[in-house]
RNA sequence: GGGCGGAUAGCUCAGCGGUAGAGCACCUGCCUUACAAGCAGGGGGUCACAGGUUCGAACCCUGUUUCGCCCA
């Protein structure tokens, strides 16, 4: 068999994805007798480029999906993309700008067409990148949030919510981005701590007998003040409530009101009330029937109501208003303050809270069942701690502003006539449902998350009761980052329950954020991200995948570094070379997969089978519990340590003997199963090697997941090999001790304390010799042997191993070595003995622990005896 | 202000009631025909601190320090 000594992932990975796809392996079996397993992929933005966060999430999902597919479950992983309204519109805007065009002059229809064109051209990019990762998604079910079917679902949901009275349209304070020129929902605002100026401004009482001082970080909004508020119980202002003040600069008369919202301990205890530009002030305005005067417009400039300041930007206005207040002698104090300022998530512009006409969803009625679903464990979070975050948000939920003043998205199916009637309809209408007059459709589109919230069922065909919907809904797992629990997870659960009666998934699996080596979030401006495709080019998708999973735990952030990816590629190479070894030896041995349970007697074979069994158990459990790191670690350790470093090395002995056939069979059988265990993590290299191993065995993708053998007792063999390992390690240690070069064979003697130990050693005698590179390894009972003087010794479990020396033993050095070994052993003995002397321990600790401690004590005492004997001999 | 998470070997992180682990880095020796992307051997940790629970705590509880995140 001709195989390069180095694994070349590029060559291998390219061919398999296409073959899998063509063979239809990505599609569900639709076998109704098997359990179903379904994941709908969190749809990346069509504008998106794959980053490590996607890679991590996709790897997790692919591991789960491949695991379940191998278990022969009816498995579906449904892919798709999200139209990402604001983001995509901004991208195309920029594109147009570069061409010297602009959206407003070309008009809505032409613009939307432009976006579709752009989507057709670049929208598949991120999906192609996922294919490179090996994502085994069912491409025949690919969805896009603006697809006809999904759009129908969006309209249906809008209409039904409206009919149920859960939608309303009104003038409320919204988070307005003056740069994106649209309203945003609360959670699309990012609060950042900033240093601001807290200015204290004096408002003169109209009675002429004093002033009231208010504090603000936004002096320009005073132009829109319609009241001053104090706490009703604040003794400082008792007499003033009900009086009027004159608003500086504008001269408007505004009342002093009392409202419990005011915090009497903050600032002067009196606050200016600007209902049109502050959410809390808006609510106070409602309670006290105040006017809301909008002094800042949608473009971020002062309106006509701002008097002489009209036309200035809000930033300019702040400076001017402050100057004028100072000139008028109204400023009573200024100091720096750290406060949270809202910024647009998309463009980082400071958010303007603004009174505007928008559509809202009443969230309270939707939230209740969603809270209950998690409380009753119908939906479970992994890790569970994220439940709290979810609950906390839902319990304090605010209504959701869903209209967006952009063009790219689902247009709101609401129509208005001149008489002010609203018609909400599933199909476009031209006449008002109430008065028959001509109507115009709402210009706005819906928040992208409004459609994403329907994703788990809209992608499966809802509102039609399709076969897919019946089969795969509710889905099994939703895997995503903890940063979008509010944006997406909670809303999906709410909508899912409301419209289908069932929570959309059983488990919410949350991964951490991927960070750079310094622990910073990845960002374009820092340039500290890495393109997963570059990693794949350098090390292969398998290396990337295993590196993302090894040593990571659900919900914990992950720091990437080239070293981790490199380590992943080393493992891929190791796997490849182990199989290369098997394949090179197998030329003369045709392995029949049917022989899997052939009888085998050699202890080394029994031992590796037992280790493999343990690995299967651990991995299966870990995968069921979404502990990918633990599962990966189990197969990594098994493959590298047990299989490569011990089993293959020991098997080499028999490959040169008459037992060649038996060894080859175990080598092959174990490799076959180990590859299967590894396949969900490293699909490409395992498929490649699996085919080489069993050319007519079909794809590993659909091979059955290994089951542990039950009822096979191999305890003796396991102990024998473990004791041999202990002997070999000790012997190697002795070699290193005297600087015996690996090329030089050593002469070893091992003296067993009991016939049982001797028998075990004898069972693996030739293997031990080979691994020790010994020219001889005499095994006998201690009582049958003469004292070993020309040798150095090391005590092991059950006996002592000696390396014979030609010349004189360096007595001093050997005594020191033994002394140190004895000191360690005595420390250990004292520790164990004191535990066993503790009555409480004997009485309260589990029986097995006590027994084990007793055994360990016996063993360490034997070790000390051997060391004593050795020391006596060297006196 | 409320909540959550991290603090374990030089670095990055697993482990989360029964004698401290991995990868990388470091030291020593090896091209032992599967693999130098490797092999063998080795050094290195009062598991942030202080209490408590327990026969037994890195692991559970309480508090403290510190870094980070989320919400208000």
TrEMBL record:
Query: What keywords sit in the KW lines?
Result: Aminoacyl-tRNA synthetase, ATP-binding, Coiled coil, Cytoplasm, Ligase, Nucleotide-binding, Protein biosynthesis
Sequence ranges assigned to domain Aminoacyl-tRNA synthetase class Ia in this UniProt record: 15-561
Q: Where is the Methionyl/Valyl/Leucyl/Isoleucyl-tRNA synthetase anticodon-binding domain?
A: 605-744
Q: Which terms does the record give in the GO molecular function aspect?
A: aminoacyl-tRNA deacylase activity; ATP binding; valine-tRNA ligase activity
> What is said about its interaction partners and assembly?
Monomer.
Outline what the protein does. Catalyzes the attachment of valine to tRNA(Val). As ValRS can inadvertently accommodate and process structurally similar amino acids such as threonine, to avoid such errors, it has a 'posttransfer' editing activity that hydrolyzes mischarged Thr-tRNA(Val) in a tRNA-dependent manner.
Q: This protein is called what? A: Valine--tRNA ligase
Taxonomic classification? Bacteria, Bacillati, Bacillota, Clostridia, Eubacteriales
Gene behind this chain? Answer: valS
């Amino acid at each position: 068999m001709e195989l390069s000594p180095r694994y070349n992932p590029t060559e291998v990975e390219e061919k398999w994805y296409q073959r899998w796809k063509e063979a239809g392996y990505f599609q569900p079996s639709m076998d109704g007798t098997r359990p179903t397993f379904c994941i709908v992929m969190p749809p990346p933005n069509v504008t998106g480029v794959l980053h490590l966060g996607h890679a991590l999430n996709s790897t997790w999902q692919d591991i789960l999906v491949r695991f379940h597919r191998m278990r022969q479950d009816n498995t579906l992983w449904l892919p798709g993309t999200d139209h990402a309204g604001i983001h995509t519109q901004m991208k195309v805007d920029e594109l147009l700008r570069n061409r010297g065009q602009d959206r407003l002059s070309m008009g809505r229809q032409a613009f939307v067409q432009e976006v579709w064109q752009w989507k057709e051209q670049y929208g598949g990019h991120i999906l192609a990148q996922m294919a490179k990762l090996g994502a085994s998604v069912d491409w025949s079910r690919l969805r896009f949030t603006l697809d006809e079917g999904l759009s129908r679902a969006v309209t249906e949901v809008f209409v039904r919510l409206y009919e149920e009275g859960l939608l309303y349209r009104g003038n409320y304070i919204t988070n307005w981005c003056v740069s994106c020129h649209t309203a945003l929902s609360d959670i699309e605002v990012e609060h950042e701590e900033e240093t601001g100026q807290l200015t204290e401004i004096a408002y003169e009482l109209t009675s002429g007998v004093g002033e009231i001082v208010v504090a603000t970080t936004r002096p320009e909004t005073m132009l829109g003040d319609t009241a001053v508020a104090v706490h009703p119980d604040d003794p400082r202002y008792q007499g003033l409530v009900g009086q009027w003040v004159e608003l500086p600069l504008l001269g408007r008369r505004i009342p002093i009101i009392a409202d419990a919202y005011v915090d009497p301990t903050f600032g002067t205890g009196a606050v200016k009330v600007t209902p049109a530009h502050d959410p809390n002030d808006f609510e106070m305005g409602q309670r006290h029937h105040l006017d809301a005067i909008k002094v800042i417009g949608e473009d971020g400039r002062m309106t006509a109501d701002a008097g002489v300041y009209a036309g200035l930007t809000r930033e300019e206005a702040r400076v001017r208003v402050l100057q004028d207040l100072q000139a008028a002698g109204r400023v009573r104090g200024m100091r720096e303050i750290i406060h949270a300022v809202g910024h647009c998530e998309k463009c980082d512009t400071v958010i303007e809270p603004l009174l505007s006409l928008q559509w809202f969803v009443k969230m309270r009625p939707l939230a209740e069942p969603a809270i209950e679903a998690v409380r009753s464990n119908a939906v479970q979070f992994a890790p569970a701690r994220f439940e709290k975050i979810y609950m906390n948000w839902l319990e304090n939920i605010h209504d959701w502003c869903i209209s967006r003043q952009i063009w790219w998205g689902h247009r709101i199916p609401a129509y208005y006539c001149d008489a002010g009637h609203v018609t909400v309809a599933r199909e476009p209408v031209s006449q008002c449902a109430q008065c028959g007059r001509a109507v115009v459709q709402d210009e706005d589109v819906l928040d992208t998350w409004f459609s994403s919230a329907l994703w788990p069922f809209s992608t499966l065909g809802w509102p039609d009761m399709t076969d897919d919907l019946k089969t795969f809904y509710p889905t099994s797992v939703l895997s995503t980052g903890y940063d979008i629990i509010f944006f997406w997870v909670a809303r999906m659960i709410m909508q899912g329950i409301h419209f289908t009666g069932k929570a959309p998934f059983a488990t919410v699996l949350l991964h951490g954020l991927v960070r750079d080596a310094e622990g910073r979030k990845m960002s374009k401006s820092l340039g500290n991200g890495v393109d997963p495709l570059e990693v794949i080019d350098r090390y292969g998708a398998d290396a990337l995948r295993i590196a993302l999973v090894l040593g990571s735990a659900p919900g914990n952030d992950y720091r990437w570094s080239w070293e981790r990816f490199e380590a992943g590629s080393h493992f891929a190479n190791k796997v490849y070379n182990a199989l290369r070894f098997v394949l090179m030896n197998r030329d003369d041995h045709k392995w029949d997969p049917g022989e899997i349970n052939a009888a085998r007697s050699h202890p080394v074979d029994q031992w590796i089978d037992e280790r493999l069994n343990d690995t299967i158990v651990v991995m299966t459990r870990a995968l069921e519990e979404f502990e990918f790191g633990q599962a990966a670690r189990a197969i990594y350790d098994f493959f590298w340590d047990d299989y490569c470093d011990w089993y293959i090395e020991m098997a080499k002995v028999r490959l040169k003997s008459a037992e060649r056939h038996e060894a080859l069979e175990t080598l092959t059988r174990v490799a076959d199963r180990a590859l299967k265990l590894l396949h969900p993590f490293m699909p490409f290299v395992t498929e490649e090697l699996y085919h080489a191993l069993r050319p007519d065995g079909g794809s590993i993708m659909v091979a059955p997941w290994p089951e542990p053998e039950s009822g096979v007792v191999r305890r003796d063999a396991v102990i024998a090999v473990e004791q041999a390992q202990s002997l070999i390690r000790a012997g190697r240690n002795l070699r290193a001790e005297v600087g015996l070069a690996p090329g030089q064979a050593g002469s070893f003697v091992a003296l067993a304390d009991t016939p049982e130990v001797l028998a075990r050693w004898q069972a693996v005698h030739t293997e031990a010799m080979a691994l020790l590179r010994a020219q001889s390894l005499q095994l006998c009972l201690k009582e049958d042997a003469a004292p070993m003087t020309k040798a150095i010794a090391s005590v092991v479990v059950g006996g002592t191993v000696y390396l014979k020396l030609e010349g004189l033993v360096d007595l001093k050095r050997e005594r020191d070595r033994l002394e140190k070994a004895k000191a360690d052993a005595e420390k250990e003995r004292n520790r164990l003995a004191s535990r066993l002397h503790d009555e409480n321990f004997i009485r309260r600790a589990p029986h097995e622990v006590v027994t084990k401690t007793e055994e360990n004590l016996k063993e360490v005492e034997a070790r000390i005896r051997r060391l004593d004997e050795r020391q006596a001999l060297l006196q």
